[in-house]
Amino acid sequence: MAKNVEELFTLQPVVMKQLQTIFDKNRLAHAYIFDGEKGTGKVDIMQFFVKLMLCEQPNQNVPCETCRNCRRVDSGNHPNIHQIYPEGQFIKIDQIRELIAEMKMMGVEEGRKIYVLHHADRLNIASANMILKFLEEPDGEVTAILLTEQMQSILPTIRSRCQHIKFQKMPRHILLKHLQDNNISYSMASTVSMMTNELETAMILANDEQFAHARKTVLKLIEAIRQNVHEAMLVVHEEWLPLFKEKGEMEQALDLLLFAYRDIVSIKANPEAACTYPDMLQTFKEAALHSTYERLSSQMESILQARSSLQRNMNRTLMMEQLMLNLQEGYTFV
């Protein structure tokens, strides 16, 4: 396994307890859907569960890691395990046809057979109907595990025949620790952990010079807004608009701006609150003292309206100018 049992319990305590109870009570179903966003540990926990089902000497519902079966699961060479990945955009009917043929063959290996469908939401209609029939009529000791980030895209008839295992997002404090363990500063880790809860994506963002520049520009705009509308307009025209040219870049920048105002609200409620921008703590404490919840709520609503206008392809210059006016309206200068 990529992660040890303790790490898996920290990441998904409810799921791990659920799977261990299923094994302990000998209530193994013939099919499971592991449903969760990228980065929630689905593949590592699938590996744990598969190994637990095949382990020769499990101890307290944990695989021994040393028996022949455990070693073969780790090496990817266990003959009773079949894993299917999409070929191109979809999992195709020929892949499912071949899988079913293999599962029905009398192999040299006794015991439970397990097949795993990665990105099961990408079954096309034909392959979904074929796997559905196999789910309805499993042959012997067979367990299916369907992994997905898009539960709603799986046919309801397939979902109804599988036990649903729901994975929660990675807790933010765990992601923060992973990032800091990888030499990401606490300030940057705090910001990227608000943008994504997937470690790989967070690492890419944290090491991206463009994202660092975006973060710096957003915070500069916050400072300008606290001064006066003219300073805010200057930053918008000289730095914001030239930097955020693409729609996706502008969306991300507005999200970063919204998180700043959320920080101010959080600090107003609790000066020790965890922030997206811990390096701005003193500045945001001062802003919180000189604003009201009503005003901050109105400012956040203005940012959300700007984001909505962006989706309607409103002129971005006009949108940002209007946003600056809205953010300034009624602002108490300090």
Automatic annotation (TrEMBL):
GO biological process terms, semicolon-separated: DNA-templated DNA replication
Top-level EC class: transferase
Molecular function per GO: 3'-5' exonuclease activity; DNA binding; DNA-directed DNA polymerase activity
Keywords, alphabetical: DNA replication, DNA-directed DNA polymerase, Nucleotidyltransferase, Transferase
Domain DNA polymerase III delta subunit C-terminal: start-end pairs: 239-328
GO cellular component labels: DNA polymerase III complex
Domain of life: Bacteria
EC number(s) per entry: 2.7.7.7
Pfam families reported for this sequence: DNA_pol3_delta2 (PF13177), DNApol3-delta_C (PF09115)
Reaction(s) catalysed by this chain's protein: DNA(n) + a 2'-deoxyribonucleoside 5'-triphosphate = DNA(n+1) + diphosphate
Xref: Gene3D superfamilies: 1.20.272.10, P-loop containing nucleotide triphosphate hydrolases
Listed PANTHER family: DNA POLYMERASE III SUBUNIT DELTA (PTHR11669:SF8), REPLICATION FACTOR C / DNA POLYMERASE III GAMMA-TAU SUBUNIT (PTHR11669)
Protein's recorded name: DNA polymerase III subunit delta'
Source organism (scientific name): Lysinibacillus xylanilyticus
GN (gene name): holB
